[in-house]
Amino acid sequence: DAALRGIWEDPDGRTPAPAERGTAGESAPVLQEGLPCFESPGASILALASVMDYVEWREKETGVLATPENVSPKAAAADIAQHLTQVSGENLLDVSASATEELLAHYGISLLPEYGFDTAEEAVEAAARAGGYPVVLKTTDDFLRHRIDLGGVRLGIESDAELISEIAQMHRVLEPYGRFDLTVQKQAPAGQTAVLTGIEDPLIGPVVSFGMAGDATSLLEDWAHRIPPLTERDVYKMVRSPKAAAKLFADGDLPQVRVDLLEDLCARVALMKDNHPEIAYLELNPVLLSQETLTVVGAKIRLGNPQQRTDSARRTMSS
């Protein structure tokens, strides 16, 4: 009490008037004078930060709904309906690579094609169809195809002879895990690697997630999650929310990559997931970002018979 009296005491000996706040031409006195007390400086700073976050949220614009161009929702819906004829009950359908490429194309998302083969001669032909060397050799196993450390991916193959040699070596390395088919793919420009996913949650409906590929997401769960439909502001903040996303921007020796293309891709994925609850799972992994390009190297889509969405009261209305 003595400390508070000293703080409130006027140097000239005058009694301070109660603080007032004008409301519609009237003033309302504060009923209790005093100062908020905290157990530590950190707690006070956290409280002040929470107040500032609230003020920022209250005053910010909601943003304009993100509306990517060159999308064909009706064509995608027709293709999805055709695929669902193969699905019964609560089962899920793993969409083939070619069908996945077609579905993504309806939303303006280009997938870097990859080509399978059975013999060394077919592998050389596949490299030519991919666009020539350098190419990447990878297994078709969903887990190993993202693991360079386990031998599931070979980068920078520059010739027919090297390709044939790498095929034999990859089969030997992967033998403890089983026998898998292999594919050839044009090597994309080097850069930062990201992951985008979309799921259909039984409670809140569509959810899209973004993170940087590797340990940031697989071990540290460094993700940004959003519920479509997304505004341009939502997309802007989404790609900057993960801590590892700092790698996307010019920092020291790291050049800035095409974040604008990444934002466009996030908007397309969000729109696709919002329009089609039949997409139980969507994954773009990896997404390579360089100073000039964005390349979707791998994609996976699983379809299922959707349940009635019950989340309309909990999501942002699109109109």
TrEMBL record:
Task: Enumerate the Gene3D superfamilies for this protein.
Answer: ATP-grasp fold, A domain, ATP-grasp fold, B domain
Q: What domain of life does the UniProt record list for this protein's source?
A: Bacteria
Instruction: Enumerate the UniProt keywords alphabetically.
Output: ATP-binding, Ligase, Nucleotide-binding
- Residue ranges of region Disordered? 1-27
Q: Which InterPro entries match?
A: ATP-grasp (IPR011761), ATP_grasp_subdomain_1 (IPR013815)
SUPFAM superfamilies hit by this protein: Glutathione synthetase ATP-binding domain-like
KW Protease (keyword) present: no
Which intervals hold domain ATP-grasp? 101-138
GO molecular-function annotation terms?
ATP binding; ligase activity; metal ion binding
Signal peptide extent: none
**Official protein name in the record:** Acetate--CoA ligase family protein
